[in-house]
Write a structure and sequence with these properties.
single chain; 574 residues; alpha/beta; Nucleotidyltransferase, domain 5; DHBP synthase; 3 domains; nine-stranded mixed beta sheet; five-stranded mixed beta sheet; 19 helices
């Protein structure tokens, strides 16, 4: 049985294919279009996952999308009657909903397929149910509490419930216009970061400030006695005239969410790329603390209500790694699972498993232990790309490759590392990574000056051998997807300064030999030379989506000041 899941007409358009419950392939459209957070219909992603599975559209049994326009119709109608939103807002939402509702036509048009040749049943899966399914059904837990938190989808911003084997039960939800995701986005925009996905930058900025403006934050978000929350809508516009949204084939764009009252409370918004003041840092710190305070209340409520010891999370807010790292120490949950594409891209994964388990009742046989679900390239394809670029290279056996790579990094050089299948989700996890020495105090500045060109306050991440996590961090719970922030032990902070943030934390990736064998060998070879079982890992890109093809990796090498590239079994020195 073949099931295709799709996220379309929203940020992070993507496709996922499963066969008899096993994941075959999953990838974001941006990896092919080279447009960050590509929206629209993911034609190239669909074509690739089908090709990877060796099938054609007529071979599909089920096709689903992570939107259901008919969901919450009564609530939508009541909201429209009470609030009377602008005609433009209603028109934009209707146009988007019509595209989503006519999935079969969009599929046939995009893929150039005759509808009569298709045998698949088409499904619209409610947005947050797809998020929840993406977390629970690929987790290692047979029972768990489930929480989905994001901006908005199908008139819902937050949904929670439980999972038991092949079934999920929804216990509650928070509806539009109240949203922790939109709250975080509004303050992010005011802070001068207007692009879709900039919330991660503000999470990195927050540790530079003090939470000195909690009184203002508490005016924006009201914690409720039942453990949920509401926004004070005086400070937002998305519910009234509505923020403009662009979900076409280009990069998603979201208009300003904050209102004039918000500006009266906080002052004039920062101009993008202008100086960041202490006030901006303190607002960012206050924003992060407010999010954690409200979300922690929600997580504790979920644990009390369900009695579960395992938690599965999804949604864009589940990418807030600073909060995620506090869940186990600050709640009664003992286990946690967040899949690597927890944002909207991951809903295509959720669609597949919602159909397979929730609708069809098929048994669970798959656990997502790694994020390596995208394209891979043969040695011949890699060598051809190197030859076409006119590069000098040498071919090495695996042991020699990892040894040489570790030697290059230990010598203070910057290494491009392109191996195996492309990662699923926003993090490079050792297959499309740039690797450097975490021991060098100046390495962060070197990377920013020569390759990444990022804001100086944004931290770089440590990849650490799983068996050595407790020697450097205050928690040892595995995190193979780089989705939690732990405290770096005080005595180890001077040892790995390049991956220790200003507040003494690190957004780590734990690397185990079973699921990331080649990357583990590289880090272990670095440890043998330096005594440190950690490397600095950042995504292989330069202000673009993570590289997908050998040609894209070579292009980054050639236009930046990278010192070396290990691509497949080939090593290039510059």
């Amino acid at each position: 049985m073949h099931i295709l899941g799709i996220n379309a007409y929203h940020g992070g358009a993507s496709a996922c294919l499963i066969r008899d419950g096993q994941l075959v392939a999953a990838v974001e459209e941006e990896r092919f279009s080279r447009v960050k957070y590509q929206a629209g219909f993911p034609v190239e992603a669909i074509r690739w996952v089908l090709a990877e599975g060796g099938i054609a559209p007529p071979d599909l049994d089920h096709i689903g999308i992570s939107r259901k326009p008919t969901a919450n119709l009564v609530k939508k109608a009541l909201f429209a009657f009470q609030r009377r939103p602008s005609v433009g807002l209603i028109r934009d939402r209707l146009n988007n909903s019509m595209k989503v509702a006519d999935l079969k036509s969009a599929f046939c048009e995009g893929l150039g397929v005759d509808a009569a040749s298709l045998h698949a049943e088409f499904h619209n899966v409610e947005h947050h149910r797809a998020h929840m399914a993406s977390a629970f059904f690929v987790s290692p837990f047979r029972e768990a509490a489930i929480l989905s938190v994001d901006g908005m989808g199908d008139f819902v911003s937050t949904m929670w419930g439980t999972g038991c084997d092949t079934e999920m039960q929804v216990l509650g939800e928070v509806n539009f216009p109240h949203s922790l995701g939109l709250f975080y986005t509004a303050v992010t925009q005011w802070l001068g970061f207007p692009k879709y996905g900039d919330e991660g930058k503000v999470m990195g900025l927050a540790p530079l400030g003090r939470p000195a403006h909690m009184d203002k934050m508490e005016k924006l978000v009201r914690e409720q006695r039942d453990g949920t929350f509401e926004l004070n809508l005086d400070y937002f516009v998305h519910h009234a005239e509505g923020a403009t949204m662009t979900w076409n084939e280009a990069e998603p764009k979201l208009g300003a969410i904050f209102s004039g009252e918000f500006v009266k409370l906080f002052g004039e918004p920062r101009v993008p790329r202008s100086d960041i003041t202490e006030y901006h840092e303190d607002v960012a710190a206050s924003l992060q603390v407010m999010l954690e305070q409200v979300e922690l209340q929600l997580v504790r409520k979920l644990q009390r209500v369900t009695g579960q010891k395992a938690l599965c999370m999804a949604g864009g807010v589940a990418l807030n790694s600073a909060f995620n790292g506090k869940i186990l120490p600050c709640t009664d949950f003992e286990d946690i699972y967040i899949q690597p594409a927890a944002g909207d891209a991951g809903t295509s994964l959720g669609v597949c498993y919602y159909i397979y388990h929730q609708l069809l009742g098929r048994p669970r046989t798959y656990v997502m232990n790694d994020a390596y679900t995208g394209p891979r390239y043969s040695p011949d394809a890699i060598e051809a790309a190197l030859q076409n670029a006119g590069l000098l290279y040498e071919q090495l056996e695996e042991e020699d490759l990892t040894a040489r790579a570790a030697e290059i990094v230990a010598g203070g050089n910057v290494l491009g590392w392109f191996q195996g299948r492309l990662e699923w989700g926003p993090r490079a996890l050792g297959n499309r990574s740039i690797i450097a020495d975490p021991r060098r105090q100046d390495m962060k500045a070197i990377l920013n000056a020569r390759i990444k060109h990022r804001e100086p306050f944004r931290p770089f991440a440590p990849s650490v051998l799983m068996e050595h996590v407790g020697e450097y961090f205050d928690q040892t719970y595995p995190d193979p997807f780089m989705i939690k922030v732990y405290n770096v032990l005080e005595e180890k902070q001077p040892v790995i300064p390049a991956v220790t943030h200003v507040d003494g934390t690190g957004r780590l990736q734990t690397v185990d030999q079973e699921h990331s064998p080649l990357y583990w060998k590289l880090i272990n070879a670095f440890k043998e030379r330096t005594g440190v079982p950690i490397v600095l890992n950042t995504s292989f890109n330069e202000n673009e989506p993570i590289v997908c093809t050998p040609e894209e990796a070579i292009a980054v090498l050639q236009r930046t000041k990278m010192d070396a590239l290990a691509i497949g079994n080939y090593l290039v020195l510059t």
